[in-house]
Design brief:
Rossmann fold; about 300 residues; 11 helices; six-stranded mixed beta sheet; about 15% strand; alpha/beta; 2 domains; single chain
Length: about 300
């Protein structure tokens, strides 16, 4: 598997799925993804757009795409961590100046547990949930319970996904053929994958000419793919600013900041306090943001 093949297979899947479910053909289509999908989503959109230009059937009602905390040029994205750390007062000015011209992407790459000599399997404490239902349905403890005093860990959300996705009733509701999936896993790290696209910037340049709606947003506390890197490559696109840096509100409070460009509502926005990825840290604010965008309400 590789970047280009992943995009082509996704396009093929969409064609087959829409043929099997023609009732959805008239629906507006937006392609969305986060993190590393910042590379593949623009490629998928390019595949769809090219197919429409060549008259492929079924014709998709493509309107735009959404990226959150997106990888665009991995080396440059990672290299921006030094500048981000300085802007957040995590390192001194002297250290920042010392390292700003050094190619730092490789030495800053985090050491993954799965690559260690003795990887530690994922584990979790069942006391963070409680069985209240006679049919053994799991419900999160209320804020008044003892478990709520524990620090929130993002990995808990991932663990819940395993319980949900491997539930036979869930799989039946999703239309998954019984027996086709023995054990669902969030990330298949045994998959051989080649990163054959160093940057997705050229796809953004091509798609701008098509006039699609684009929403790109990040958390301003994301040090994995810092917002400073995202701002830099968007600036490289040489877009005309329609509405400069301004706040957007949720419940009367500043939830983030946006820049709107004149090219078909090309929007860059940030969720204040959000990490990687923003909705995991600021779900309420990000839901409000994307709901407004889909409704064509100003951000």
């Amino acid at each position: 598997m590789k970047d280009t093949l992943s995009a082509k297979q996704t396009y093929t899947f969409l064609i087959k799925w829409l043929i099997a479910h023609p009732i959805f053909l008239s629906n507006e289509l937006y392609v969305a993804g986060d993190s590393y999908s910042g590379k593949t989503v623009p490629m998928v959109v390019q595949e769809i757009s090219d197919g429409m230009d060549m008259g492929h059937e079924p014709r998709m009602n493509l309107k735009g795409y959404v990226l959150r905390n997106p990888v665009t040029d991995e080396n440059k994205d990672l290299n921006s961590r030094i500048r981000f750390a300085y802007l957040k007062a995590l390192i001194s000015y002297e250290l920042y100046k010392c390292t700003e011209r050094i190619y730092t992407a490789q030495i800053l790459e985090p050491t993954c547990t799965r690559h260690s000599p003795k990887p530690t399997p994922p584990s979790w404490n069942r006391s963070i949930i409680v069985e209240q239902d006679p049919y053994h349905n799991d419900f999160l403890l209320s804020p008044t319970d003892e478990a709520s005093s524990r620090p929130w860990c993002r990995n808990y959300n991932y663990i819940y996904s395993y319980t949900w996705a491997n539930d036979k009733n869930v799989q039946k509701a999703l239309g998954i053929r019984e027996g086709t999936i023995k054990q669902w896993v969030r990330c298949n790290f045994s998959l051989s994958y080649t990163k054959d696209v160093p940057t997705s910037l050229v796809y953004h340049q091509n798609l701008i000419k098509k006039g699609y709606q684009v929403l790109i947003y990040s958390g301003d506390h994301d040090m994995a793919i810092p917002y400073v890197a995202t701002k830099k490559w968007i600036k490289f696109l040489n877009l005309t600013i329609d509405s400069g840096w301004h706040p957007w509100l949720v419940d009367g409070q500043v939830a983030g900041y946006s820049v709107v460009y004149s090219q078909k509502d090309y929007i860059l926005t940030f969720a204040t306090g959000g990490g990687h990825t923003a909705p995991e840290y600021k779900p309420k604010e990000c839901l409000a943001m994307i709901s407004r965008w889909f409704a064509e309400y100003p951000l």
